[in-house]
Amino acid sequence: MHEVVFYLAALWMTVLLGLSVISVIRARSSLTRILALDMTILILIALLVLFSDSNRVSYYLDAALMLALLSVIATIAAARYHSEGKLFS
Amino acid sequence: MSPLVLLTDALVLLGVLVMTVGVYGVFRMPDTYTKLHASSKAVFLGVIALVVASVGTREPAVMTRGFLIAAFLVVTTPIAAHVIARAAYARDEAMETPGAVDESGHDLPARPPTRDDG
Q1: A57, A48 in Cβ contact below 8 A?
Q2: Mutation target among B11, B51, B86, B117 for the A interface, most CBs of A within 10 A
Q3: Rg of chain B taking only CA atoms, in angstroms
């Protein structure tokens, strides 16, 4: 029962990851694409946390922490470059 | 089956359900401003539910790293959403929601003038 829940959750979140990649491709404006990429990274972080919960090991979470750090910097840089033409004014 | 295992399963299923709602919202909502609600609130709360479910592992290394990720996401996800919304407003993206009224940003210029001091 316990393992089945984790397997089904990981399977369904892989489907969600694919759907969010489709929403990145189908985005109509650049900011919607940046938003969908941010959501893709959040789903990837959640998938790594789920693997770490199910295997009771912690080294997936280091990758998740680095993804969280880098995705925020990337989102802020891309959105500011898109709106103002340069990163830091 | 112990209560902690049941709590872990319930939190995992809750997180996956909330993230499903968030992804559906990004597909369903018409413009960037309303898509931000789905991606930055619903998906983020699903990640938080999955992090809280790591209490069920009873491993201190997993729990400390998990709550570090949760604390970091609590700080940074609103900042990213704010930056995206501000950029969308500055680029004059249309609000395509029916009945949308622009009530904010009268002090924010439509295109900020680029200064040449950089």
Answers
A1: no
A2: B51
A3: 19
Residue B76 lies in a domain: yes
pLDDT tens figures, B50-102? 999 998 888 899 999 999 999 999 999 999 999 999 899 888 888 888 888 87
Q: CB B27 to CB A56 under 8 A?
A: no
- Which domain range does residue B29 map to? 3-90
ipTM value:
0.89
pLDDT at A20: 95
In chain A, which among 9-68 make CB contacts under 8 A with chain B? 9, 12-13, 16, 19-20, 23, 29, 31-32, 34-36, 38-39, 42-43, 45-46, 49-50, 52-53, 56-58, 61-62, 64-65, 68
Task: Say if residue B115 is exposed, middle or buried (CB neighbours under 10 Å; 0-12, 13-18, 19+).
Answer: exposed
Is residue B36 in some structural domain? yes
